[in-house]
Each structure stands twice: as structure tokens, then as C-alpha cells.
Design goal:
Elements lengths: L4 H22 L6 E5 L6 H17 L3 E5 L6 H8 L7 E6 H10 L6 H4 E17 L7 H10 L5 E4 L5 H13 L4 E4 L3 H9 L5 E5 H9 L3 E6 L25 E9 L4 H15 L2 H8 L4 E2 L4 H22 L6
Parallel strand pairs: 1-2, 1-3, 5-6, 5-7
Antiparallel strand pairs: 3-9, 4-7, 4-8, 4-9, 4-10
Length: about 325
């Protein structure tokens, strides 16, 4: 069997067009990488990105430059990476809120499923349910009984409308069939302050945000929303242990690149990121922040985002949460 001249030309052209991409991937990174963090410096997203970015820089020999672009709950920074050149040199570590929740809550300028290229799920951080010290409940069963005895009388604080802590409270209401009132704040700090002042009765927030107050005895821990107990709070049971397997609530952070980023570059980024995450020193630093490192494959992360988006869209609909869409 002979190969036609036309087929040979097409094969040659295909190989010719592929060579620059392969060469680029082999040399990647050949210059500094900009790593967008869509939140201000000092928060969990920023800490995770800086620890991993530093190790990526050491492994690659190229600087990984942190670019904090806070605003709109992570949406502005995530939008920035969606509009960046698809060459692998502008990426982001974004959050559950910006990637899976905000698109159901408001009009955003990007479509997570089509305008971003998943690289890897970096880390998960459990949400912790805590109550003020004057609340007479020491576990989730007692808390639910208390709320049912006083429907509409107890409040839960959040870091803002449409935030993960807000939707965590709504999922708690739906799952336990209780009536508690949402009190939104402009960030986690004022929510915690009013909880300490016993102006509100409970909240779900990232475990590392609450852990100092829990360890000091200023807040009472009820449960964590992860599949297993956290190593930083081993005495606090999971929601599943308490009989509420559907009340699994974790914040998460994932690395994304712009749409159209070549597969070879995505593979290179994935390899660099997961190698950095496998470093024992990186694991130790982030474990202290209550984070569990993941490092899955791009397609698995893509499906994870889709599943999380569907999960929270259903909570928003079933709870009747007001949206800006």
C-alpha cells in the first residue's frame, strides 16, 4: 500500500506545526511565571500560592511572581487570568468561590468551563462549624435541637452574601431542616468579632481562620466538613461522624490557566506544581494551615469543578438564595 503525496504533505505539515509547541514545552519555563492570587495578601489563598510558588521557582530556576488581585470574592483576579495570553506564563490559584459559586450567584465575565484551563486541584481546607461560648450546645445534635426549639431565633454569620460560609449555612439549614437566620458581614474578621462578642450564635469558616480562637477557648467547635478529621483539630468530629454525610463542606484552591493553553504546556505546569506539592517541607507548612494537598490530573480537576458548580447551584436554588444574575 502506498501513501499518497497529499497525505504525506499533511503529515509533514502537522509535524511542522507541532514542533514549536513541543520545543516550547521542553524549555518551559524559559522566563518568570506570573501567579495571580485573586485575594489580598495574608489570607489562606495567598499563603498556599506563596508556599507552592516558591518551591516551583526553586525547581524550575525561574521566578514565580505572586500578583495579588483581590476583589469581588476572587472574581476579578480569576477574570484576569482568563484574558491572559495562553502561553503558561500567567496562571492563577483560585478558589471554590470564584470558580464554582460566583457563576451561579452573579454575572461574571468568564465561563469557568470554557474560558479557563484546569491544571490541578491544589488543596482543600475544611469549613469548621463553631458556636459562641454562650450557646448551650457541645455537638451538632444538641445544636440542631436548640435551633428547633427556637425556630428563627438563632443567627449564623458569614463573610458575605454568596460566600462559601453563607452557602454552608444554607446547606446546614436544608440538611438538618432547621430555621436559622443569615447575618452577612464584609469578610471573615468582622464575623468572628461579633461571634466572640456573642452578637451572633454560629458560623462556618475556613478552619485556620477559627483555629486560634478555638484553641484559646473563645469559641466552641462543633464539627468540620471534611471527610476525615483535621490533623490540626483532631478532637473535632466530622459532620459525617455526626450523621450528616451530606453536610460535607470544604473550601478548595485550584490552579488554572487561560483557555487555549497548549496541552504540552499544561502538562509541564502540572508536573512542576505537583512536584512542588510533593515536597515534605511544603506539605508541612500547608498542613499547619489546615490544608490537605491534592495534585490531581487536569481532567479530574475539570470534573471536580463541574460537580462543585452543580452542587452549589442546587443549594442556591433550593434555599432560595437571592442572586444578582
Amino acid at each position: 500500500m502506498t501513501i499518497s503525496r497529499r497525505l504525506l504533505v499533511e503529515l509533514f505539515l502537522g509535524l511542522f506545526l507541532l514542533l514549536p509547541s513541543l520545543a516550547s514545552a521542553q524549555n518551559f519555563p524559559a522566563k518568570p511565571i506570573k501567579l495571580i492570587v485573586p485575594f489580598p495578601a495574608g489570607g489562606p489563598n495567598d499563603i498556599i500560592a506563596r508556599v507552592i510558588g516558591q518551591r516551583m521557582s526553586e525547581l524550575s530556576g525561574q521566578p514565580v511572581l505572586i500578583d495579588n488581585r483581590g476583589g469581588q470574592g476572587g472574581v476579578l483576579g480569576t477574570d484576569a487570568v482568563s484574558k491572559a495570553p495562553p502561553d503558561g506564563y500567567t496562571i492563577a490559584i483560585s478558589s471554590a468561590g470564584a470558580l464554582a459559586i460566583s457563576p451561579s450567584m452573579e454575572r461574571v465575565a468568564y465561563d469557568t468551563s470554557s474560558d479557563l484551563t484546569p491544571v490541578t486541584l491544589v488543596a482543600t481546607v475544611p469549613e469548621m462549624l463553631v458556636v459562641a461560648t454562650n450557646v448551650p450546645a457541645k455537638d451538632i445534635g444538641e445544636l440542631i435541637a436548640l435551633t428547633k426549639a427556637q425556630p428563627g431565633k438563632l443567627n449564623f454569620a458569614s463573610s458575605g452574601p454568596g460566600s462559601l460560609p453563607h452557602l454552608a449555612g444554607e446547606l446546614f439549614k436544608l440538611t438538618a431542616r432547621i430555621d436559622i437566620v443569615h447575618v452577612p458581614y464584609r469578610g471573615a474578621a468582622p464575623a468572628v468579632n461579633d461571634l466572640l462578642g456573642q452578637q451572633v450564635q454560629m458560623t462556618f469558616l475556613d478552619l485556620p481562620v477559627l483555629l486560634p480562637q478555638v484553641k484559646a477557648g473563645a469559641l466552641k467547635p462543633i464539627a468540620v466538613g471534611s471527610a476525615e478529621r483535621s490533623a490540626t483539630a483532631p478532637d473535632v468530629p466530622t459532620t459525617a461522624e455526626a450523621g450528616f454525610a451530606d453536610l460535607r463542606i470544604e473550601n478548595w484552591y485550584g490552579m488554572v490557566a487561560p483557555k487555549g493553553t497548549p496541552k504540552e504546556i499544561v502538562t509541564a505546569l502540572h508536573g512542576l506544581a505537583t512536584k512542588a506539592m510533593a515536597d515534605p517541607a511544603v506539605k508541612e507548612k500547608l498542613a499547619a494551615q489546615g490544608a490537605t494537598l491534592i495534585g490531581d490530573e487536569p481532567e479530574h480537576f475539570r470534573q471536580f469543578i463541574a460537580d462543585e458548580t452543580a452542587k452549589w447551584a442546587k443549594v442556591i436554588k433550593d434555599a432560595g438564595v437571592e442572586t444578582a444574575k
